[in-house]
Amino acid sequence: MFKLSSEASLDGSITVENKFIVEYLPYADGDYVKVYLYGLSLAGRKSDSDDTVDRLCRRLDLDRATVDAAIDYWCEAGLMSRLGDDITYLSLRTARAKIKKYDVDLYREFNRQAQLYISARQIAPNEFNEYYALMEKLKIEWQAMTLVVKYCVDLKGDNVSSSYILAVARGLAQDGYRTYDEVESRLEEYGVYYNELKQLLSVLGGKKPDHEAFELYKKWLKTYKFSRDTILHAASYVKKGGIAVLDAKLTSYTELGLTTPTAIDSYEADRAEMYKFARAVNKELGVYYENSDPEINSFLRPWLDLGFEKKAIIALAKHCFMLGLKTLPDLDAVVRTYLAENILTAKGVEEKLNKEKRHDSAIEDIMKTIGLSGAVKAAYRAFYQNWSGVWGFSDEVISYAATLSVGKTFAYINGVLAAWKNCGVKSVDEAKAAGAKTEANNSDGGNVTERISADTLNSLFTQISGDDNE
User: Fold this and answer.
1) CA distance 383 to 407
2) Which of 54, 104, 98, 45 is nearest to 76 (CA)?
């Protein structure tokens, strides 16, 4: 359980004080800082029963040994106290680091050499104590620690922070490098990589190699099994983000089984084409996505795998925009209707759309008759296709129905024609005979909305397709 001491509670230490940031944070390992801050948040949650060390391990994705080491570190610094599983945060105002005596004679030569390398500043006693504590805890020879100090100074300059030196030493020790010979051999391996890594980083923006870069480079070579040339080639595809983006790319290439420059080129060329395709589709739909990967994976690639031409999809996107359908799911619904009719090419899409527009002149006349202005809407085409292609009314009968619907809507005309269809009307004369009665029955038709959903439009497109084959 995490909790605040009475002094810490009074001091308001649930907030992170400047003293912690200035005097403690710069010298602590990054994981140790995460443990301190997350534990502090748990300590401040009075009603949270699950404030255990195990929960902290899960939330920070750290193993129990690392968390316990962090807690011990803060206890040594005087910022925590521990009794079993109870962790208490102490006031920074009254914090007193636990004084631990080290063998001065044992570390005298280490002190001399470390200060010789770190010549830009005076190493403080508490910094030396951190080196001693790490060496004793992880069984690192002081001669090996001296090599680590020199290595870090060579990478970062003689003003390198103690936290960086401690992190490098801790990483080497955790990998099993603790003696002078072991560390020397390991660092010599990094030296072999130096010129290669320097060339690689110049492609990525000219950053000087550091320990993290060496570790990544080793992973790419030893774990991922990439050749040096392949790694350098992959870097040419990184526009920004540096080595972190390159690591993400190489990890992705490994998962995809891309191990050669040729395979990577083919993949990147296809990816660039898909991004270009996505931009074209989105332009027609009138939408923008900062990241097109979800769109490509969930919609574009599946459509292409179904056999659609890219130009066909772009044409359908433009068609959807004209219908007022501006989302990818809307476009997907329309694409599925064309798939059902096996219309997969741009030419096929164009022919079908032209057929749907072939009654536009007659529709414009109807709009003029009933008093509607503006462009022909997809809903009007769908109505007309249903009247002509499905119900079988002639243009003359439809035009006559329009004369009975002045000041009304297409939905009103649809009601008139529906009544005539039920009466078996086929000619204008029969329509005139039934007209007065039909108009009376449809007296409330003007209140019927003309709004047609995407699903309705799509179903109408499918329903009336039989007329296209006549």
Assistant:
1) 17
2) 98
